[in-house]
Amino acid sequence: MQTHEISRRFLSYFTGHGHTQVPSASLILEDPTLLFVNAGMVQFKPYFLGDAPAPWPRATSVQKCVRTGDIDEVGKTTRHNTFFQMAGNFSFGDYFKAQAIEHAWTLLTDSQDSGGYGFAPDRLWATVYDDDDEAIGLWRKITGLPDERIQRRDGRDNYWDMGVPGPGGPCSEIYYDRGPEHGRDGGPVADEDRYLEVWNLVFMQDIRGEDSPKYGHKPIGTLPRKNIDTGMGIERVAALLQGVDNVYETDLIRPVIAKAEEMSGRRYGAGNPVDDVRFRVIADHARSGMMIIGDGVTPGNEARGYVLRRLLRRIVRSVRLLGVQEPVLAEFAAVVRDAMAPSYPELAADFPRIESIMRKEEETFLATLSSGSRIFDLAADKLVEDGGRTLPGDKAFQLHDTYGFPIDLTLEMAAERGLTVDETGFRELMAEQRARAKADAAARKTGHGDQSVYRDLLARGNTVFTGYDELASEARVIG
Ligand code: ATP
Ligand code: MG
Ligand code: MG
Ligand code: MG
């Protein structure tokens, strides 16, 4: 079943059950706590918080999402995209736990002929929050799931809240068992690669205080009107229904891998796991980069622009590590457009602008790379001549600091020549530089103009931005 059809069936099922279909919000919303929309519920936050009355009792959507926090998982796990589509059904003080479970179960297990996804019920597992006995009872009664396929998990996995006092509640997640060839027995608690999480149901029933039940505290009250917020990963369902190993091989993403194979002359899945990760990273990032530009972001050194820059540059680096030196982004963009435009026609309409932003960023980065590569080669030649095998930390730092040459590329290029890099030394120099910049800025009281200080603040968690860990750790790497 094609990705587009998976979305269509979701919306059709829920509109058929009294839900109003709401279009995806932009990835960029005026929300100071988020860099990018990362879940279907984000556009409905005011209704859940009680700041505005919900215009409908029930809603459904397929929301564009970006999760920068998952960037390091991309290509390594089978299930994490930076951009993905989250299908959801929402109840604003209307139906609650029993119906949410029933709807999810019905859509997942109804036969494909009758509009469902046709998953075999005996492959499905559910998790519940530690003390949510009510949910356990409902799973048994409504779905007939046997006890051994319902697992309890603690608050870190199965309690949801917004990180501040306000609404919260236990979750139930639904997992599909891909079979013993994908990992260990023992359910999702034992192995989240074999047991693939496809759908998360949040039962918003509590009022949490300063301390979250996530970390073992008791909620301070019960919501007068209980809500439902769910999220089903379209790409994950697609991977399962298309019988492929991972989300990167599904119909809308795989074509980029094919393009990269054609450009590089290397084959995906040919027994080189390192190359395979690169292929998957390229395909994932090409799509997320384009979707982010489509929603109005341009590459830059701060916040969203910085994430975008990181994604685009990572494609270029990965392609280069597959042996391609020429510009590639415009070609990938065309492939992504062709795959995605049926669902997102604005990508086709806006293509010239999107493509030119990608081209420009690539040109700038390639210039950086070529001067950095020359410096690297000289340093490596000298090292080998002197009989050394480890590139000193200060050289890696100079490459990074003076030439903007990313440390991961230094590591890769060193490895290709059988050399290592003194990474500890490099990190120490990075830390010293950060400390200096902070002191300087404090002295000048110009903290806001100084990027490194800005990122450092983020790293210390002084703001409620999400995804700064991400930004900050990358800032240490690319700066
Ligand atoms: P995981 O534990 O696998 O990282 P999650 O618990 O963080 O997933 P939720 O926040 O519950 O995910 O999001 C709801 C659904 O969205 C998930 O059940 C999954 O199907 C999908 N999803 C979440 N993150 C991603 C991602 N990075 N790429 C693709 N789909 C995702
Ligand atoms: Mg996650
Ligand atoms: Mg999870
Ligand atoms: Mg989840």
TrEMBL record:
It catalyses: tRNA(Ala) + L-alanine + ATP = L-alanyl-tRNA(Ala) + AMP + diphosphate. GO terms for biological process: alanyl-tRNA aminoacylation. Binds 1 zinc ion per subunit. Its cofactor is Zn(2+). One of its GO terms (cellular component) is cytosol. Residues 1-479 form the Alanyl-transfer RNA synthetases family profile domain. It is found in: Cytoplasm. GO terms for molecular function: alanine-tRNA ligase activity; aminoacyl-tRNA deacylase activity; ATP binding; tRNA binding; zinc ion binding. Catalyzes the attachment of alanine to tRNA(Ala) in a two-step reaction: alanine is first activated by ATP to form Ala-AMP and then transferred to the acceptor end of tRNA(Ala). Also edits incorrectly charged Ser-tRNA(Ala) and Gly-tRNA(Ala) via its editing domain. Belongs to the class-II aminoacyl-tRNA synthetase family. This is Alanine--tRNA ligase. It comes from Actinokineospora bangkokensis. The gene is alaS. The chain holds residues 1 to 479 of 889 of the full protein.
